[in-house]
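Page 37, top half.
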Amino acid sequence: MPHPKHRFSQTRTAKRRTHDKVEPAQLATCSNCGAAVMYHHVCPECGYYRGKLAIEKGVETA
């Protein structure tokens, strides 16, 4: 495998790595209960997805 003849500068390396960053997840609000939900996921609070019941949530008893 060939070896580079010259070292890449820090600026050149940083330009390549500008897109290698972690971005926060995009959240939406549930139309049924108003909780924060990731896009294209079932609401963990009420179990609804796009206005329809997807998961039956059980009632907790104390």
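Page 37, bottom half:
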Amino acid sequence: MRKRWWFIPGLAIVLAAVLNLFILVNAHVPSGSMEPTIPAGAMVLGNRTAYHWGQEPKTGDVIFFYHPELGKKWIVKRVIAVPGQTFALWKGRVYLDGQLLDEGYVTEFSSDSYPETVVPEDSYLVLGDHRCHSNDSRFWRDPFVRRENILGRAIFVYFPKLHRL
């Protein structure tokens, strides 16, 4: 009878480990590259299973991913262009397939431009919401995030202020 009291805490530890390893992403975002959507120092919860079972990232999704040029740390950025789309940046404004993208989440646009580029299969182009202070696809030698390097989709910020993404 005395050994049974360990069952509930043990089960809770196993359940927390399974959730953390296979279902949820719990991340600290140290930089302000996604402001105002995700403030510097925020804690964000994500869903590792969001892109399983045939679902793919879409334009506007905020994702967690790895990029070989940035090491093995998780990065958080917004998907701007998906496979097959033509991306261009002109004076800080994004054009997808020749059409201006409405980006209500951006409060300060950069002034840079980027040549017209077609996103390859199984790849995505990502940008930070705070364009003047974001190290993103515009600056990498390989501007694309490969599908196999996407960890999951950000769901909500839970610290310092709770809000859904």
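Margin note: The two ends are 47 Å apart (CA to CA).
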